[in-house]
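Problem: given the chain below (409 residues), write out its structure.
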Amino acid sequence: MSLLTRSTAILAAAVLALAGCGSGGGAGGKTKLTFFSWDNEQSMKPLIDAFEKQNPTIDVEFSTAPPVAEYISTLQTRLVSGTAADVFAIAAENKTNLIQGGFVKDLTGKPYMANMSKFNTATYSKDGKAYGMSVSSWAAGILYNKDLLAKAGVTEFPTKWADFIALCQKLKGAGLTPFYDGVTGMPLTVAALVGHENARQGGDVDAQIFAGQKKFGDLWLGPLTNFNQLFTSGLMSKDVVGLTGAQIVDEFANGRVAMISAGPWDVTTLREKAPKMNMAFAGVPTPDGKPFWSGAASPGYAINAKTEHEKEAEAFLTFLGSKEGVTLFNKQTAAMTTTSDVTPEIDKVLEPNLRALKEGTFYLPQIAWPRVQDALNTEAVAQLQLMAQGQKQPADVAAALDDRLKGQS
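Solution.
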C-alpha cells in the first residue's frame, strides 16, 4: 500500500470514527438512545433491561430529575441547549410549551398508540394530533392511618369538609399531628377542592376563565378558603412548606402524622417502609359531602423532534406501550394502567382511587388549563406557600393567578 493510499485510509477511518461519536454510538457498536424521566431509576431499570434484552443493538442511557419544577426546568434547559434526550416525559405542566415549541414529534397513528386510552391520548394532543403516549392515570386523595384514627375514636372517614376539620381537631386534641399536604408543588387537596367546585359549576369554568368571562376567584376562592382553614386553625403546620413529598411519606410511615395527601405512587414505598400499617384511601371531603380526587392522565412518553435516533426511539415506545412494558410499569410503580390490553393489578388500598377514575370524579388544574400551564403552576405554588405562611390571603392567590394569566396572554 502506498503512503498516499495509507494516509487516505487513516483519514477515512478517522472521519468514520468522528461520525460515530456524533451519531451517539454506544459501547460495542450499539446505538445509544437517551431517555429522561421523572420516574426514578429503581422504577425504570427493569423496563430498560427488558427492552435492551429484546433490542441488543440499543443501549439506553437513563437520566432522571424529580417532579415537577426541577424536571421541567432541567428538560427546558436541555432542549434550548440542544442536549435533550431522544425520549423524555411530557407532563401536564409543560405539554403546551413542548407542543407549541415544536420540541416533540407527532405520534398520531403510530401502531404503539393503538391501545392507549382515548382520554390519555387527548390529554397530550393538540388540534387532533398526539404528541405523548400515556399508559396510565392516577387519582390521589387522603391516605389515613386507621389505627391512629381509631385511637381518637374515629371509625368512619368524613365526606364533608366541616367534618374533616372537626376530625383534624379531634386528632390534635388526642396529641396527634392530624394532616400533611405538601406545598412544594400543587397541593393535591387544593386540586381536588377546585375540581369539585368546577364540577358543581358545570365543569367548564376553566374555559370561561381563559376566555375572559370569569376570574380565578370565581372558581378558586372557596377551595382556597377551605384549605387555608387548616393553617389558620393550626391544624396543619406551616412547616409543610419545607417538606418534600418523600419526607411527608416518611412522617406517615413512622406514625408521626395521621393523614396525608397521597397518590398510588406512595403505596409501594409505604408497603416497604411500614408493611404492617393499617391504612386506607378516601376522596377529599367537600362542602356538600361529595368527595373528589386530584387526578389526571399520567405523564406520557414523547420523542424529541430533533432526535437522530427516531427508529430506536419508536422501538422504545413500542416496548413501553406493549403488554409486557405496561405490566412491568404497573408492577414497579403501582400505576393505574389504562391501556386496552392490560388490566391493572393494584393494591387493595387503591380500589377507591380506581373507582374515582372510572366515575370521573378527579381533576388537575394543569390539565384543565388550556395554555401557560407551567407559568400558572409556578405562580400558584409560590402564592400557596405564602398563604401557608400567613403572608397571603385566598383572594390574593386568586388575583395573582389572574395577573399571571393576563401577563402571559
